[in-house]
């Protein structure tokens, strides 16, 4: 074997782990990149029992994929991090991460030290984020036309869903939307055979006890129990003694007194985290109280926040009427909706009470599930745009930044410049993939876009995927929330750096060996 052949084999062995990881990342990226852009297509996910999900939602595809390769799992973390933090832009973040890995591998296999590439990559990401931040357009209230166009893009041009989300946003109010602890997307509920609706209040998924007898109540008092509605417990062994039985009967009397006190306080809705004693069931039925057992802790907290109720344990029922009344919440109206088999609690007029629930309806579970995912993306995009502004979409901002970063890279000394070069090349991937999905030659069209951006001195110039002409994306309304792009780029850079630094993959031994 010649010396050149020896060198080739040594090189292949040296980069075998890197190339293996790169191929795994590429396989995952290819599963979602075809969904990118207005001409992107769907992916069919087939479960082990034949169940089918058809979607172009990146995080859904990645979350349900059967992935075992450790590097591929790292890439999936990009989508999960993007979804948890922002709620939108998972596909773009994944495509960016994949491109950063591929471009980084290309430099490393040409002989650039991995540490230098990774350091340059980090510098390139930070500089790109600074350049993107300078381009952000802030949203001027919920009536800003840029906001609705941003939601329209995130809602995959579904007018019905966009109108639903905009209506919900106006009812929630801009103050609540700007609250980082509030998530409009979490208020979305998918229901089969229901109509799209924005309901001002909370919709409980559970059915009340005696659903047919349950009525609607106006100005209802609400009791929230992180507990069950039953008498205080006594040891079974104590019941075998006369004193123990007497104590048991006393506890039953106290419990009956507690129930009477609730009736006197005009409590009309009792929400329980656990179950209810049969005697309490009958009492509540006789006194016109709606009881809902087995409500999740999250729903109990939502109701408490809206109604002003203080969640309590069972022993709090022993308090006197004045103290107990202070723990109750109130709602303008509570009713059991037989059509959707859910309980509606209306919100009040105060800002504290203003909570909205977005009902997304469709005829089948598959269709309603996808509609709810689209609505979730639209809601997340709206909230991100309100808090952090917008940028031209379709990869136009990233393309403009990539060329600016390229000029900075030319003045960079040291081998870290190759890492910055990798970032510059990767930033062109989103637009390239969108154009490819639309049936155009990416290289040709991207050159047209860049020339137009230079002529107009604007990063808003992009390609109309229907006509192939260069257009102004801001005028056309193709916009993305700035936090989606910024967080996606940072997350993609972190995962790409982690993958590029892996020298070997070693299986750990089982615990106890």
Detailed description of the structure:
This protein has 3 domains: 244 residues, GROEL, domain 1 (Orthogonal Bundle), CATH 1.10.560; 74 residues, no CATH class; 151 residues, GroEL. Helix 7 runs antiparallel to helix 14. With 513 residues, it is α+β, with helices and mostly antiparallel strands. An 8-stranded mixed β-sheet has the order 3-10-4-9-8-5-6-7, with helices on both faces. Strands 1-2 form a two-stranded antiparallel sheet. It has 20 helices and 14 strands. It starts with a helix and ends in a 13-residue tail after the last helix. The protein is elongated. The N terminus is likely disordered.
| Shape by Cα distribution | elongated
Low-confidence stretches: 1-10
Distance between the termini: 43 Å
In CATH, what is the class of the largest domain? Answer: Mainly Alpha
Decide which structural class fits the backbone. Answer: alpha+beta
Number of domains: 3
Main-sheet strand order equals: 3-10-4-9-8-5-6-7
Proportion in helices = 40-55%
Main β-sheet description: 8 strands, mixed
Strand % is 5-15%
Assign the CATH superfamily of the largest domain.
Answer: GroEL-like equatorial domain
CATH topology of the largest domain: GROEL, domain 1
Indicate the mean pLDDT: 87
Total count of strands:
14
CATH architecture descriptor name of the largest domain: Orthogonal Bundle
Tally of DSSP helical segments: 20
Taking all Cα atoms into account, the compactness measure Rg is 29 Å
């Amino acid at each position: 074997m010649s010396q050149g052949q020896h060198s080739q084999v040594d090189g292949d062995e040296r980069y075998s782990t890197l190339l293996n990881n790169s191929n795994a990342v590429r396989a995952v990226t290819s599963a979602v990149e075809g969904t990118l852009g207005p001409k992107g297509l769907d992916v069919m996910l087939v479960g082990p029992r034949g169940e089918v999900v058809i979607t172009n939602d990146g995080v859904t595809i990645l979350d349900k994929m059967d992935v075992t390769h450790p590097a591929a799992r790292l890439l999936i973390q990009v989508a999960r991090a993007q979804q948890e933090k922002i709620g939108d832009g998972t596909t773009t973040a994944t495509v960016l991460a994949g491109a950063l890995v591929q471009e980084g591998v290309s430099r490393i296999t040409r002989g650039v030290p991995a540490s230098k590439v990774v350091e340059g990559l980090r510098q390139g990401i930070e500089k790109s984020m600074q350049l993107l931040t300078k381009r952000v357009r802030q949203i001027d209230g919920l009536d800003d036309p840029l906001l609705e166009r941003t939601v329209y893009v995130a809602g995959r041009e579904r007018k019905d869903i966009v109108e639903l989300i905009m209506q919900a946003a106006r009812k929630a109010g801009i103050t609540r939307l700007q609250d980082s602890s509030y998530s409009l997307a979490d208020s979305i509920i998918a229901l089969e055979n229901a109509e799209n609706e924005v309901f001002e209040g909370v919709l409980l998924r559970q059915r009340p006890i005696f659903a047919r007898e349950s009525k609607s109540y106006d100005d209802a008092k609400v009791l929230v129990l992180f507990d069950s509605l039953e008498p205080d417990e006594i040891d079974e062994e104590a019941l075998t003694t006369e004193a123990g039985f007497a104590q048991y009967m006393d506890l039953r009397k106290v419990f009956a007194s507690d129930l009477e006190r609730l009736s006197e306080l005009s409590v009309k809705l009792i929400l329980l985290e656990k179950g209810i004693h049969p005697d309490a069931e009958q009492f509540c039925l006789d006194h016109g109280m709606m009881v809902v057992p087995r409500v999740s802790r999250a729903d109990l907290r939502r109701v408490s926040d809206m109604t002003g109720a203080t969640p309590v344990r069972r022993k709090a029922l022993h308090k006197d009427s004045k103290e107990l009344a202070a723990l109750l919440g109130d709602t303008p109206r509570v009713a059991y909706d037989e059509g959707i088999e859910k309980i509606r609690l209306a919100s009040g007029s105060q800002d504290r009470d203003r909570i909205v629930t977005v009902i997304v309806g469709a005829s089948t579970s598959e269709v309603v599930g996808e509609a709810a995912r689209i609505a979730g993306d639209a809601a997340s995009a709206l909230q991100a745009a309100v808090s952090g502004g917008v940028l031209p979409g379709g990869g136009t901002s990233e393309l403009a930044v990539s060329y600016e970063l390229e000029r900075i890279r030319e003045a960079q000394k040291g081998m870290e410049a190759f890492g910055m070069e990798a970032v510059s090349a990767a930033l062109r991937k989103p637009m390239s993939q969108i154009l490819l999905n639309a049936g155009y030659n990416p290289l040709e069209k991207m050159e047209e876009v860049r020339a137009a951006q230079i002529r107009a001195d604007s990063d808003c110039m992009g390609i109309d995927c229907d006509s192939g002409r260069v257009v102004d994306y801001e005028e056309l309304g193709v916009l993305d929330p700035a936090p989606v792009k910024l967080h996606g780029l940072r997350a993609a850079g972190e995962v790409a750096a982690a993958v590029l630094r892996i020298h070997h993959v070693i299986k750990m031994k089982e615990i106890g060996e």
